[in-house]
Amino acid sequence: MATGFQERRVLVEIPAPQPKITAHIRRSYFEALNYRMGSSPCAVKSCIKKQKLNQKKELQLMAFSREQLVNLVSSLMLLEEERSPPASRPDLKLLKENLQLKKTHVYRSIPYSRLGSNRDAHCYRKAYPHLVAFKKTCLEGGRLLLQSEMWEAAVEYGLAAWRFTSELPQWDTSSHNGLREQCYRTLAAQCSAALQHSGLGMAKCLELRRRPGKKDRESTVHHD
């Protein structure tokens, strides 16, 4: 068998001519910074402009005296107060509901007895932790309103807290009613402080004067 030779053809792909690259292209400082930061040249220029402006303001402030700086800060604070909207009146519903809940816990802690009194020393010891919790919640609400300088809300809360306090049980032993008296005294002081700062009208003052007096507190109906 004759040996045959197969011709092998090799196809060589010739690449297309590449465009000539211009050497020694110089980029500006902003273009180089833009390439590194990945932002537009306009954004970079704006950032540098703001930095220069801030530096200029800092130099101007350094030239001010201490008195001039104090006057400047005071003027800015007054301007901010004028621009800011007036503080909204607080909603006392949550505070009142919390007082109602604490009062309910007091009555639920008192053991029920058909034979003996449920206002004796034994029942007082059962209710004492809840009485302390009521007192803390009652006085804390008024203190927070006074610290926030919400004078009218503090007066309204004081009247509501006074009513809740008058609904607490009266115990057979007079010394056990000390927590109630402490609430009365502190609420009266808080309402007086709020009235002195608020400049409320006569209607609110008359409403405060109609609060229960000592005789009313002593004649409070016992809650079973």
UniProtKB/TrEMBL annotation:
Membership in a protein family: Belongs to the cut8/STS1 family.
Molecular functions (GO terms): proteasome binding
One Pfam match: Cut8
Domain of life: Eukaryota
Any single GO CC term annotated in Swiss-Prot or TrEMBL for this entry: nucleus
InterPro entries: Cut8/Sts1_fam (IPR013868), Cut8/Sts1_sf (IPR038422)
Annotated keywords: Nucleus
Gene3D superfamilies named among the record's database cross-references: Tethering factor for nuclear proteasome Cut8/Sts1 (1.20.58.1590)
Chief localization: nucleus
Gene Ontology annotations of biological process type: nuclear protein quality control by the ubiquitin-proteasome system; proteasome localization
Record lineage: Eukaryota, Metazoa, Chordata, Craniata, Vertebrata
Stated name of the protein: Uncharacterized protein
Nucleus as UniProt keyword: yes
Annotated compartments: Nucleus
